[in-house]
Specification:
- 2 copies of one chain form a homodimer.
- Chain A is an alpha/beta fold.
- Chain A has 12 helices and 5 strands.
- In chain A, helix 2 packs parallel to helix 11.
- Chains A and B meet through helix 3, strand 2, helix 8 and helix 12 of A and helix 3, strand 2, helix 8 and helix 12 of B.
């Protein structure tokens, strides 16, 4: 296959110094060399590579002493396509290697603990690719927009998140933090589609409009959260998401690059191959 | 597509009165009308249907009051292909709708509880398809063959399992219990393959040969367990597994039939569609 990326999304989409969310066009396809048809093809052909890397990650954990794991964090406004990423990118990988968790509104028990308590409980095991559909970032997004806690607490949480993620990175977790960035107009179209199709009603929630009416506040909260928590060891990537095919192929590439960076090989036998061949022959 | 099954595996492979494991030929392909090529095609074309049924099951749980869920229990001797079933059958479905859990040798904490304690903790949520790679049946299989508990305790456990599964069925869980049935010779070939390929070493465990050397005891333990726990509400299916393509297409069909039996439709809107359209337009 021809070269698909003229700039790697790992560089191109990364949140760095002076980041402004408004500078990212949700309809753009930064770094990708082709259009939709090529994107769909590229997603398909990239699945095999991602799948093989995942198997090596899993194998690595079985060799004993392995500590490597990956955590994909997905954040977005409603309808931005988190579910599609899980289905079409993560879904191409062996389910045995995936720890998927969708965080909902916190329960009373969860609220009785520190905000990271429920997050820690769902961290992926060694050798796994964890996927968080929403995450601890809700605690500096909805919590801020809805004033669920004081500004001081929000301020403090940015620091706690950075420290938490540094701890994860130091103990073997590669974080891939993705914000799917959709436009206000595209969200309207997608919500309209859900309201037009009886097979989509179950995905619609009247509360989605309440959140939509706070759009600007959410964009602000995202911008600050991304600025404050995009670090060397746990960077954020803002993925334009008005074009579903682009968002999927970009997240696939981000994950693939993260796994490639782990330099995985098949672990050597931790038994004597010749001895085992003899035992098998005699059985 | 032409008719693929002359007899449904739900009937053909079911463990009923007078079941004897030795009567099932692991190399056979009961009920299926074609060979490997057709089987592979059929698996592919069946994936979409299974996937759509899963989405309906998931949607059903969001409507409020839903209790339906499915639990696929996979049991087998080593190398029989549990992993392949998860990857190629379950893997075709949205990961968001799958609760997969692989039971290992019990931990000390687990052993300090009743044998069903750890099982209950991993039961699928409403709307989910749970997949158990090994299960509470290990507690009447390895536990029996290795005399980890007394024969009286094993005897008691059959009854406890039947009662447990009846409780699950009564509260909305459709159980699909599958034993993948492989031959002694085929296992030898598959273990030899793992020992011949450095990219497969990580899947090999010297303990596999120890278990293999107890083959007849395991076959006996399986036969009794299946006889004692195949009930109306939670039947066992013995799937011949020497031909991987057959095992996969058969388990796909068992799952599909189980989901079909739930008579799922898209849940109606639990909001006023016209009102929401107006709210959206004004947003």
């Amino acid at each position: 296959m021809a070269k698909t990326w003229k700039t790697e999304p790992t560089e191109q989409l990364r949140v760095g110094e002076g980041f402004r969310l408004a500078d990212v066009d949700p309809a753009s396809t930064p770094g990708f060399t082709g259009g939709k048809q090529y994107g769909v093809q590229s997603l398909e052909s990239g699945a095999e590579q991602l799948s093989e890397l995942q198997e090596k990650l899993f194998a690595d954990s079985r060799a004993g002493g392995g500590t490597k794991r990956v955590l994909l964090v997905l954040q977005a406004m409603d309808t931005a396509g988190k579910g599609g990423i899980v289905r079409h990118v993560v879904g191409a990988v062996d389910p045995q290697g995936i720890d998927h968790y969708a965080f909902k509104k916190p329960t009373e028990e969860e609220l009785a603990h520190d905000f990271l308590w429920r997050i820690r409980r769902e961290l992926p095991g060694v050798g796994m690719i964890g996927v968080f559909d929403r995450s601890h970032y809700e605690d500096v997004l909805v919590a801020k927009v809805r004033s669920l806690v004081s500004p001081d607490v929000i301020e403090q949480r940015y620091g706690e998140i950075v420290a938490f993620e540094e701890e994860l990175a130091a103990s073997g977790t590669t974080l891939v933090k993705v914000m799917l960035h959709i436009s206000f107009d595209e969200q309207k179209a997608r919500l309209a589609d859900r309201l037009a199709r009886p097979d989509k009603f179950w995905k619609y929630n009247p509360g989605d409009i309440d959140e939509r009416n706070l759009w600007a506040d959410y964009q602000d909260a995202y911008e600050v959260a991304l600025q404050r928590t995009s670090t060397e060891s746990a960077p954020w990537f803002v993925v334009p998401a008005d074009r579903k095919w682009y968002a999927r192929v970009a997240v696939q590439r981000l994950l693939t690059n993260a796994l490639r960076g782990l330099d995985l090989g098949w672990p050597p036998a931790d038994f004597d191959v010749a001895v085992e061949k003899t035992r098998l022959a005699a059985s």
